[in-house]
Q: What sequence folds into this?
């Protein structure tokens, strides 16, 4: 959306504003969240479009990236391990993944809390006990929960992919604050998170080359699924309903013409 | 037939037994069956029925959502996400409800525009119109409180900004704000009462809608020509003519609604509302839902806080007195060549305000908002009252039947070829 809309008031500006107002009627709010608008790289994801669906293999690799990289700092507390079955992991795999973490449960009959291996019904384990602990470990910054991060950012998946691949050396005229990193897509360009993805950082089970772009693409696919697990069902239902309503609309209109035929 | 019973003409014996004692069947037949309706409605006349359907959709989805929602600052956000993930078709319920609010305002704005363009607020429909404005105000209150319930960042900060408006009132302002909050900031008591009121107000709306429809069935509907039906040749029974025509609009409405819900469910929302509320972090730009933006722009157009609040409320309150501000006896803008461009300019000012309300409070938006706000009020307070005296309206048609029937003689310029006039 237009930023730096630098124009003094004139009839022309009013005319421009009018044209935009028509668009604003449909999408006014999203105009605001982003900082200076930097054009996002043009990436297409399998879940875009009206027939969108998740790429299971990519989402599984993305989960691996999350687990091995992101999960050290970022929680995803809306998700349970059982949800991973939806991206094509088997029961046994899910059980195995859950069992790798220790979950505090209790109190038991003696009134004591105890640790046990995770179960598919457990929520994803949080890396920190609370926000204070997270900030203390991260130079004062709070790594946000990633459960719905794709819905919580302007341009969702495209922005996330851009952010993850948008680290670069700061321009000469920019002085970074201590502990900050330069990212061309982050609002204000100074982000506390160091570049999280490095080439070859994750060894994918299926042999996919772990370039930074591939890692970013896969983890974005995974996070998009995590934010909108209903997406496939929703879009498939939408296609059917719109088709149904189109046919029904034709029939209803024909009925209306027939009813009104004697009036005209 | 025993005396004291209603003389029912229903043939089914069971229904007749009921109808004789409680003539609901007769009433429905009279009000929605044979009800004489002007024969020349265009599709703008669909939107009252659509608003009614929309209200019912909101109430039904809302009741089911409230079965799963937890009105507590610690659980509200997560309970909404649980609805999205673990409740059967919870995502559908929530997206229909959230987008249903937007649909409701789209429908009602078009419905209000219909009233403005065809002069439906004029005698004898003043009270009908005023009840409509009451519904609109109740809708705004309900929608605002509903947006607070998911307890995201925009929920919290929107609630903070809007409730703080009352602090602009002299002397008692601050006390009123504390009373509204139930504490010294927007917190759990605020969320609880907003949930309670959000559940209550739709039923109040339902009651006022009943009065709105009752008043409508006394005066009868206005029509695109704005002239009164002069006899049976000018009207049609509501059923099957307008049930059929409303059905066409209803399917189109459902299709639009479905595209929003199934393909763009978050387009009209703000991404920040998927960030849990945090009283310590203020979002870069706090914006209300799109349907409040014109009024938000009016609020911000005034440099003085109290002045802004007063003007914002006045922008809606002015609708209550509109029937008396418009001094022209001619209802339909089709026959008001001078008033028509002024009304369209008013519509433009409304959209300009809607756009500016979503922009940061900086130039050039502030100046544009001021110009648009000035025109918004100028139209009601100066232009309409004056035009009634200055304008020479076009000759009105003799009756509804004549210009509608083919070959009905020469027509006034505005009476044909309207894009919505397919019927």
A:
């Amino acid at each position: 959306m237009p930023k730096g809309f630098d124009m003094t008031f004139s009839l022309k500006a009013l005319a421009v504003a009018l044209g935009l107002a028509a668009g604003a009627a449909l999408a006014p709010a999203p105009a605001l969240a982003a900082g200076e608008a930097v054009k996002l790289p043009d990436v297409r994801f399998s879940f875009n479009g009206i027939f969108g669906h998740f790429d299971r293999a990519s989402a599984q690799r993305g989960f691996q990236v999350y687990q091995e990289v992101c999960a050290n700092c970022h929680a995803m507390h809306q998700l349970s391990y059982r949800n991973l079955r939806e991206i094509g992991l088997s029961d046994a795999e899910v059980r195995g993944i859950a069992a790798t973490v220790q979950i505090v449960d209790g109190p038991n009959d003696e009134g004591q809390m105890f640790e046990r291996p995770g179960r598919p019904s457990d929520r994803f384990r949080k890396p920190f006990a609370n926000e204070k602990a997270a900030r203390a470990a991260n130079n004062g910054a709070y790594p946000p929960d990633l459960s719905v991060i794709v819905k919580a950012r302007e341009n969702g998946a495209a922005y996330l992919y851009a952010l993850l691949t948008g680290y670069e050396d700061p321009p000469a005229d920019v002085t970074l604050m201590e502990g900050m990193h330069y990212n061309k897509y982050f609002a204000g360009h100074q982000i506390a998170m160091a570049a999280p993805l490095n080439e070859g950082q994750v060894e994918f089970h299926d042999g996919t080359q772990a370039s930074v772009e591939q890692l970013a693409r896969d983890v974005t696919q995974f996070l998009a699924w995590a934010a909108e697990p209903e997406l496939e069902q929703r879009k498939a239902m939408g296609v059917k309903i719109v088709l149904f309503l189109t046919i029904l609309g034709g029939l209803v209109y024909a009925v209306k013409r027939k009813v009104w035929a004697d009036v005209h | 037939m025993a005396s004291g019973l209603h003389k029912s003409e229903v043939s089914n014996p069971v229904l007749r037994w009921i109808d004789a004692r409680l003539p609901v069947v007769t009433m429905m037949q009279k009000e929605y069956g044979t009800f004489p309706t002007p024969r020349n409605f265009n599709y703008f006349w669909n939107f009252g029925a659509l608003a009614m359907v929309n209200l019912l959709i909101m109430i039904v989805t809302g009741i089911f959502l409230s079965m799963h929602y937890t009105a507590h600052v610690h659980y509200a956000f997560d309970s909404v996400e649980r609805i999205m993930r673990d409740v059967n078709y919870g995502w559908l319920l929530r997206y229909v409800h959230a987008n249903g609010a937007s649909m409701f305002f789209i429908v009602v704005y078009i419905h209000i525009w219909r009233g403005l363009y065809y002069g439906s607020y004029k005698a004898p429909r003043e009270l009908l119109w005023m009840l409509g404005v009451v519904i609109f105000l109740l809708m705004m209150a309900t929608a605002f409180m509903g947006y607070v319930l998911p307890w995201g960042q925009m929920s919290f900060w929107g609630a903070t900004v809007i409730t703080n408006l009352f602090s602009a009132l002299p002397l008692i302002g601050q006390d009123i704000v504390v009373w509204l909050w139930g504490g010294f900031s927007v917190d759990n008591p605020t969320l609880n009462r907003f949930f309670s009121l959000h559940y209550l107000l739709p039923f109040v709306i339902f009651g006022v809608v009943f009065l709105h429809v009752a008043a409508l069935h006394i005066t009868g509907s206005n029509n695109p020509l704005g002239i009164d039906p002069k006899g049976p040749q000018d009207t049609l029974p509501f059923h099957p003519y307008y049930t059929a025509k409303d059905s066409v609009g209803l399917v189109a409405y459902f299709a639009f609604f479905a595209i929003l819900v199934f393909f763009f469910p978050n387009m009209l929302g703000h991404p920040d509302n998927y960030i849990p509320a945090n009283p310590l972090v203020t979002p870069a730009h706090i914006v209300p839902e799109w349907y409040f933006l014109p009024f938000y722009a009016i609020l911000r157009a005034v440099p003085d806080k109290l002045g802004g609040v007063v003007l914002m409320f006045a922008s809606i309150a002015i609708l209550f007195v509109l029937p008396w501000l418009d001094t022209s006896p001619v209802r339909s803008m089709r026959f008001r060549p001078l008033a028509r461009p002024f009304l369209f300019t008013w519509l433009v000012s409304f959209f300009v305000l809607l756009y500016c309300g979503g922009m940061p409070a900086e130039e050039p938006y502030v100046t544009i908002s001021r110009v648009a706000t000035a025109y918004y009020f100028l139209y009601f307070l100066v232009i309409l009252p004056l035009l009634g005296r200055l304008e020479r309206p076009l000759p009105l048609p003799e009756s509804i039947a004549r210009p509608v029937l083919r070959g009905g003689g020469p027509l006034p310029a505005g009476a044909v070829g309207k894009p919505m006039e397919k019927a």
About this structure: The first helix of chain A runs from residue 11 to 26. The radius of gyration of chain A is 24 Å. Residues 1-35 of chain A have pLDDT under 50 and may be disordered. Chain A touches chain B through 57 residues (CB under 8 Å).
